[in-house]
Amino acid sequence: MSAHGDGVGLQTLTTTGAPVSSIARSPLAPAPRWRRELSRAWKNKKLLAGGALTALLVLVALLAPVIAPHPPDQMGVTPLYEKPGSKHWLGGDEFGRDLLSRIMYGTRISLAVSGIVTSVSLLVGGALGLLAGLAGGRIDGAISSVTDLLFGVPTVLLALFAATIFGPGLNTVVFALAIVYVPQFARVLRAATMDVSHREYVVAARAIGVTSGRLAFSHVLPNCLSPVIVQVALVMSLVILDEAGLSFIGVGTQPPTPSWGIILRQGLDYLTRTSHPAIIAGASIFVAVFAFNLLADGLRDHLDPRLRGR
User: Fold this and answer.
1) 109 touches 116 (CB < 8 A)
2) Nearest by Cα to 283 from 264, 255, 258
3) Residue partners of 120: CB distance under 8 A and separation at least 6
């Protein structure tokens, strides 16, 4: 049938009162937006690879009590310094603990700390950035000054200061890292808010008397989510690396908790006897950081309209 005939048929359907669903199934009707986005995401190799690795890490963290072959702190399960083999896939450590079980439980700790720190930093920093971008003036200047000050605070120094007050442990790590990453979210959301707040639909909403709260949460914030989502994935990778580093120097998680940083430090202490515990812990940290960085790059390519044609 010709294009003209298709058009007549479609017009006849609409004028004769045919159901709208029959028109939606027409070859001329565009695909739903969710299907187009899913098709674009499926072609994004970085997003697929990063999402698959991240999902695998989350599954290991959630199912560790079920799939781990032994409790993480049970001693004498393996011979001391046992090499990886068929019986114990990742071998044992200096106390005869199964390294596979400790790495699995270490995944729970790393992702939990990363998720808590990122959530707190996002809520506090996002609120500050949104307020600074919308209010401007002295409020913006005060918030920007505070965030600039926090940017200059070293993570290790802040963690050491918190450890002297609260003592070393997970609470110290969460407190220190949450403060460190608040300015990153504040700066990202402030820049996005200032860009969106000058667009026509926001100016029109202000002109008709929309309240500040409704303007912020209905018009501005939904259009600032793209850079925030990318920043969340990036910060989660950085927090995993920082948590392992703080545990490595003794400020963060304390033994016998199976943190990747503790496993790495204990592996280095016995490096003259065996090297596989340090290598396995370092590889675990690398895979987790790589997964979230890859996910962040994939999300940036998918959500940024300027990169969609690349």
Assistant:
1) no
2) 264
3) 174, 178
- 20 pLDDT tier (thresholds 50, 70, 90): very low
Per-residue CA distances from 222 to 140, 217, 286 (Å): 21, 7, 33
Closest CA to 184 of 241, 110, 129, 237: 129
Residue range 226-251, pLDDT digits in tens: 899 999 999 999 999 999 999 999 88
Report pTM: 0.84
Encode the chain in three state secondary structure: CCHHHHHHHHHHHHHCCCCHHHHHCCCCCCCCHHHHHHHHHHHCHHHHHHHHHHHHHHHHHHHHHHHCCCCCCCCCCCCCCCCCCCCCCCCECCCCCEHHHHHHHHHHHHHHHHHHHHHHHHHHHHHHHHHHHHHCHHHHHHHHHHHHHHHCCCHHHHHHHHHHHHCCCHHHHHHHHHHHHHHHHHHHHHHHHHHHCCCHHHHHHHHCCCCHHHHHHHHHHHHHHHHHHHHHHHHHHHHHHHHHHHHHCCCCCCCCCCCHHHHHHHHHHCCCCCCHHHHHHHHHHHHHHHHHHHHHHHHHHHHCHHHCCC
CA distance 80 to 185: 45
- For residue 64, the tally of other CB atoms under 10 A from its CB is 19
Please count the other Cβ atoms lying within 10 Å of the Cβ belonging to residue 271: 11
What rounded mean pLDDT belongs to the chain? Answer: 85
